[in-house]
Write a structure and sequence with these properties.
Layout lengths: L2 H71 L6 H20 L6 H17 L4 H14 L10 H21 L1
Helix pairs in contact: 1-2, 1-3, 2-3, 2-5, 3-4
Length: 172
């Protein structure tokens, strides 16, 4: 074998090794792209679920807004009026409880809490309770528009919500 043949064989071996590395790199890139596609599909499904849940929450809020007004305006007797109003107020707080979750967006939750306070106020709840609920609206508005609520504030809000529920339960 001549020196020229040896040189050509060495270069072909280098080219072959480089092609194998290139093929491995391309296979990894294809794998990454396919995983990105899977992630995008998952994100789209989650977005759809969130949109559906938001619609349900809005329906529940609308139903909750109607419930206290109906319960207070059309009681069957004078004795049933405080009881039905307290039940309606308890439903408002239960709805609010389901909306407080880990990772909640502060601005969204501030709106929901404000709506719950307005509903309680229209339902004839005590002014002190409404003021304490609206305090949380002011606290949550101190966050930036899309910030999640800190774990410490979520814990305090849940504790206050339990106190509010106990207060309404006593009114029954």
């Amino acid at each position: 074998m001549s020196e020229h043949d040896t040189y050509v064989r060495a270069k072909l071996a280098e080219i072959s090794t480089s092609l194998e590395r290139l093929a491995d790199t391309l296979n990894r890139m294809i794998e990454v792209v396919s995983r990105i596609g899977e992630i995008q599909d998952t994100v789209a499904q989650i977005s759809n679920a969130v949109a559906t849940n938001n619609k349900r929450l809005e329906e529940v809020l609308q139903g909750t807004r109607r419930t206290p007004a109906g319960a207070v305006s059309a009681p069957s007797s004078a004795a049933a009026e405080p009881r039905s109003a307290a039940s309606a107020l308890q439903a408002v707080l239960d709805t609010l409880d389901s909306q407080i979750r880990e990772g909640a967006i502060a601005s969204d939750l501030a709106l929901k809490i404000n709506e719950a306070a307005e509903t309680l106020e229209q339902g004839g709840s005590g002014g002190a309770l409404v003021v304490r609920i609206q305090r949380w609206t002011r606290i949550l508005r101190t966050y930036n528009r899309i910030d999640p609520i800190s774990a410490n504030d979520l814990k305090k809000l849940r504790d206050d919500l339990r106190d509010w529920q106990r207060e309404i339960a006593k009114a029954r």
